[in-house]
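User: Okay, second chain of the day. Same drill as before: sequence in, C-alpha cells out.
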Amino acid sequence: MSELITLPKPNQACLERSRKNGSMSLEKAIAVRRSRRNFLPQSLTLEQISQLTWAAQGQDTSSRFRTAPSAGATYPLELFVVTGDGLFRYLPAEHSLEKLTGQDLRADLASAAWGQEFIEAAPLTLVFAAEFSRTTNHYGKRGIR
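Assistant: Same drill. C-alpha cells below.
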C-alpha cells in the first residue's frame, strides 16, 4: 500500500463563498504575472503545497465541485507533484498526496521538458496529465477535442 500524506486544510478565506473580491484584480494579476526561472533552495511547506494543489484541482467538501471546471464533470486531469522527495499524485476527494516513489525525478522531468534545466532546480513542479477515457467514455470521439 502506498503512503498517503494528508494535507492541511486550504486557506479557509479562499473557500468562503461570501469572499468574492481578492486583494488584487484579475487584470492587475495578469499584468504583473511573470515567469521565474530562479528558485530559492528550500522546499515549500506542506501548507503551501496544500494551497497550490487545492487551487489547481481541489474539491469543495460542501458541494463536491472542483476548483477547475470540467466538461460533464468528467475531470480527466490528474495532478502530480514532483519534489526532491519524490513523485506524488494529488487526491482531490481526500485532499492528500499519494507517494508514488521516493526517487528524485526532477532531472528526468527537466530532460523530458526539452532540457529546460531550471525544472531540475525547482523545489516543486506541478504536472498535469489527462486520462482521456474519462471524457471519451462520456462524449465519445468528441471528448478528444
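The CA atoms of residues 11 and 51 lie 7 Å apart.

User: Thanks, on to the next one.
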